[in-house]
Amino acid sequence: MNRHQCIYIALGSNQAHMGKTPARTLCFALGELVRRGVQIEAASRPWRTPAWPDPSDPPFSNACARVTTGLEPGALLDVLHEVEDVFGRARGQRNAPRTLDLDLIDYRGRVSGQGGDGLILPHPRAAARSFVLLPLREIAPDWRDPVSGLDIDRLVARLGAKDRAGARPDGPPLAPLAVQHGA
After folding, report:
1. Beta carbons within 10 angstroms of residue 79's beta carbon
2. Which end of the chain is more exposed for a tag (fewer CB within 10 A), N or C?
3. Backbone dihedral angles phi then psi of residue 173, each to the nearest 5 degrees
4. Is 8 strand, coil or helix?
5. Distance between CA atoms of residues 109 and 132, nearest Å
6. How far apart are CA 21 and CA 17, in angstroms?
7. E strands along the chain, which residues?
8. Are 101 and 110 in contact (CB under 8 A)?
9. Using CA atoms, how far apart are residues 39 and 50, in angstroms rounded to an integer?
10. pTM to 2 decimal places
11. Which residues have C-beta within 8 Å of that of residue 160, sequence separation ≥ 6?
């Protein structure tokens, strides 16, 4: 597989939604993406990570998925935001606890500045986040940051020891689940 033709998204949750655990919410979010025409090629295991910047908030369940779609990056970002809304995402305070967070990490290796849609590719902070890099490495062991050219193992090695140690796998690889009416 040509890594330059891949699209990667990151998923995260640290609040239950309609009785679903954060990890289960990620599976339902993948199912909602499929329902909207975004195919899931591979998904990592969920990783349990401390909340940031306030570690007293509930821990996160984070994962990454490799997807395919005919959508351009801005339209895909719109779909990600729509799915967040389905799962009760309340936008307000930055880095606050949330039911669902979906980020476009890499779109076929494109590098672009902030356009009218607010999209920067690759995601500007992905290469420094354990909760993105560790699950991404599971599904994309040959991934390179399109900006720096650094491979994922080198990026992981650059993370702080505390950051790496705080993240741990927490279950089998995610699989899409069909969303019931009312999510």
Report:
1. 18
2. N
3. -55, 145
4. strand
5. 16
6. 7
7. 7-13, 39-43, 47-49, 60-68, 101-107, 168-169
8. no
9. 29
10. 0.91
11. none
